[in-house]
Design a protein that fits this description.
The protein is globular, with a radius of gyration of 14 Å. It has a single domain, classed as Alpha-Beta Plaits, CATH 3.30.70.20. About 20% of the residues lie in helices and about 15% in strands. The chain has about 100 residues and is α+β, with helices and mostly antiparallel strands. It binds iron/sulfur cluster (2 copies).
Length: about 100
């Protein structure tokens, strides 16, 4: 019922943002090839806007945003890699 405009499009990936360590430089937003990021309306505790995935259906998980971020506050990942990670690692971030 009710197809919307994005129905034909399927996201290939997503991003993880650590808003608290973002400095609001906007590199991730400027360099995203599919233009799917925007600044948040909210501020973090340091007073910066941080990126949010405004058009998730456009994200490919290419991680260019992560490559450009000087503070490692964002990274992109393809869903297929995320799946692979889930199957090998324990959930909950005991990464090391
Ligand atoms: S992973 Fe790629 S497509 Fe997704 S937000 Fe980052 S730069 Fe844009
Ligand atoms: S590149 Fe990093 S520090 Fe700059 S706005 Fe994006 S997440 Fe924040």
């Amino acid at each position: 019922m009710g197809n919307d405009k994005a129905a034909g499009k399927k996201a290939k990936g997503t991003v993880f943002v650590q808003g608290e360590i973002c400095k609001g430089c906007s590199y991730c937003i400027d360099f995203c090839p599919t233009d799917c990021l925007e600044f948040s309306k909210d501020f973090n505790s340091k007073g910066y806007h941080y990126p949010v995935l405004a058009r998730p259906e456009d994200c490919t998980g290419c991680d260019l945003c992560g490559l450009y971020c000087p503070d490692f506050a964002i990274f992109g990942i393809k869903f297929k890699d995320l799946q692979a990670r889930k199957t090998v690692g324990a959930p909950g971030g005991a990464g090391g």
